[in-house]
Amino acid sequence: MKLKGKKQERSEGNEGAKGKMTLSLALVSLVSAFGSSFQYGYNVSVINSPAPYMQEFYNKTYLDRHGVPMDSGFQTMLWSFTVSMFPLGGFFGSLLVWPMVNNCGRKGTLLINNLISIVAAVLMGTSELAKTYEVIIVSRVIMGVFAGLASNVVPMFLGEMSPKNLRGAIGILPQLFITVGILAAQILGLHNILGNAEGWPVLLGLTGIPSLIQLLILPFFPESPRYLLIQKGNEEQARKALQRLRGCEDVDDEIEEMFQEHRSEKEEGQFSVLSLFTYRGLRWQLISIIIMMMGQQLSGINGVFYYADRIFESAGVASGSIQYVTVSIGAINVVMTLLAVFIVESLGRRMLLLAGFVLCTTSCAVLTVALNLQTTVSWMSYLSIACVIVYIIGHAIGPSPVPFVMITEMFLQSSRPAAFMVGGSVHWLSNFTVGQVFLYMEEGLGPYSFLIFGGICLGTLLYIFFIVPETKNKTFMEINRIMAKRNKVEIQENKEELRDSHPVLGSQAERKGISSSEL
């Protein structure tokens, strides 16, 4: 009893030390999110405001080359390529996640990815000087590849570095910086700043600056401790990385938990995407991330943003002021995602997902009615505005940030890269599909398009309610045990074998007065 009491006291003391947000952990989280996730958001919206000036540049360049103006149909096709190549590049970037993070590490992949972003930024920034619109389209593909890698690797990197009681909050930071990037592009894209005929090349080229900052600073921070220990087998480096991130010398509990994870999945080895789809022990995890990622992108967020300008204009907002309203919506998105950072550890991932999809489902249903009646009932346009705001709030607190956190938590080290590759591919393919299909939906169904989005939100909501477990404040192994029961498989776990296979932990335990049975 006395021995257990001492162990419990020691464990509680270490838990308090390890659960703190240390300066090192905070800096690596901010540098990673700013240097990678920020550009994803920035490039989502950077071409919206200067679109007329960029299309004018396309036409002028074509005229200078051929002596005749560009055909309107050809110009529409080129601009469609300019917009759609970004999510398509994101899909290709997601396909690179598994090989790159396994061979180059998490940090190494982010550093290589920074070079991709800088090259694309230079090409876009000099496109007008070079008088070539083709370079802009190619650069959008390159930036898409960058975003596809960043959107998957940053949550994986930060999730593996975080203590379990901060993993949700830190895991939402990438999404927070995505919304900050969208807002930054909206502000810089105002007509009186850079969203004009002279400023748009600078606006496009600025995306390289955060990547350059990350390229210079990130090498001074440690690699993911889980990658170092479980995949590279380097306990010494993993221990040093953990000690720096946690701000304390005693990290034995986390090292032990990593070895338990390694032991439990040692027989399977590294999962490929094919083995991920065929392995029964990960069936429900895989189905869950596919449904959550599809629900995230097919829930109508792009449609709401598309309709937003029209909705605010019908409510009497002057056309010249619409751009400032768009910035306001972007600011709401940032504030609500920031709120999610602070409440995800208290309310949990599952609660935020459920609450978010409830708000999105309700908003889509009411918005359909309001849009149909706003020409006959004057105050319906204001109800439409309210629905847009409520929808954005709902999406920002749950469906946008939480699915990537869940991928990190629902998979162990050997299957996590392949899971991110699958989840990221579904994310970007769904994004691309909505971009291609929505205009046809809007033309054929009008406001009734939101009934389809509402149905997708409702279906995702029901799936999460019945299937997806709460993962807050649990170790990866604890989450794995929960999912093993749903998959109806047994986890092979033997702590005595673990101690024998890793005598360092056993000897450290003995020095600290802990019996082998307690280890």
Architecture overview:
The protein is an all-alpha fold. The protein folds into two domains: 22-221, MFS general substrate transporter like domains (Growth Hormone, Chain: A), CATH 1.20.1250.20; 275-488, Growth Hormone, Chain: A (Up-down Bundle). The chain is built from 25 helices and no strands. It has helices spanning 2-18, 23-45, 51-66, 72-95, 97-125, 127-130, 134-161, 167-188, 200-205, 208-217, 225-231, 235-246, 252-264, 273-278, 283-298, 301-314, 322-347, 349-373, 380-397, 402-410, 416-445, 449-466, 476-487, 495-501, 503-511. α5 (97-125) crosses α21 (416-445). It is globular and about 65 Å long. The two termini are 15 Å apart. Residues 1-18 and 494-519 have low confidence and may be disordered. It catalyses: D-fructose(out) = D-fructose(in). Its main location: membrane. It is found in: Cell membrane, Sarcolemma; Cell membrane. The chain crosses the membrane at residues 21-42, 77-98, 110-130, 136-158, 170-194, 200-221, 286-308, 320-344, 351-373, 379-397, 418-441, 447-468. It comes from Ptilonorhynchus violaceus (Satin bowerbird).
User: Briefly, what CATH class of the largest domain?
Assistant: Mainly Alpha
Largest sheet: none
Fraction in beta strands:
under 5%
Report the radius of gyration as a whole number of Å: 24 Å
Work out the helix count.
25
* Assigned CATH superfamily of the largest domain: MFS general substrate transporter like domains
User: SSE order in H/E notation?
Assistant: HHHHHHHHHHHHHHHHHHHHHHHHH
Uncertain parts: 1-18, 494-519
CATH 2nd-level architecture of the largest domain: Up-down Bundle
Mean residue pLDDT? 86
User: In terms of structural class, how would the helical and strand content be classed?
Assistant: mainly alpha
